[in-house]
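Suppose a colleague, Dr. K., hands you the sequence of a protein chain of 247 amino acids and asks what its three-dimensional shape might be. Before reaching for any lab equipment, you can write down a predicted structure in token form. Begin with the sequence itself:
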Amino acid sequence: MLDPRRLQRPEDLPLRASDPKAKKVALIGNSHAGHWLPALEEIAKTENWSITTYLISECYTVDVMVDFGTPERSQNCLDWNKKVIDEIPKDHYDLVVFSNRTWAKMPGKTRAQTWTAAGAAYTRVLTKWADAGTPTLVLHDTPYATELKNVPDCVAAHLDDLSACDGTRAREQKDPLADAAARMSNPDVKMLDLTDRICSGETCYSVLGGVIVYFDRGHMSATFAKSLTPDIKKAALSVMAARSGAK
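The predicted structure, expressed as tokens, is then:
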């Protein structure tokens, strides 16, 4: 996964698979897109998908500047995003899977103002891809155990009481990308929210079915991500079928 501090050229992307007979699938976003990859790889085994990843740390996929503390980092993020946003329609993907954590602020904006501006930017991106006939599945950002330093460390320290590592619904994340997708009526855009696979009632869990949910405090472990494969597969095939039926 690229880091906007080190990304010097937008030509440095992407990580591309190459089976010419496979369905072309792109995974796009920051690290909160990357943690879905194990589930997508499980689907690829049975559905003959070839997955290309467009992943970069922290930088979320919008067509405006995001503030990363230095002009170089901020510009690198914007250059990357413009390249990705423009490339996707040209590459004629059978499916785009799109997810981000929208956290860094935009220049001169508060967090709330950033989320509003990001929502408008995400709508523009989704509309651009939908107008090009690109089926897009948006995966809602997952809950984040912000009150813990590290979930596996907490589990290791509380093996006799795993509930000590659980949290409340306050772990849920504001997600302007998911909100933008949910507002769209285009059949080529679908939003899937799997929060209730992690949270139930007022509790958001750190361990489910004997599996640690996170490998740190905000990114899913590969094993837990794979447990969500059936939900993602159903949604992905649905949005792909909608596009096939429209042809």
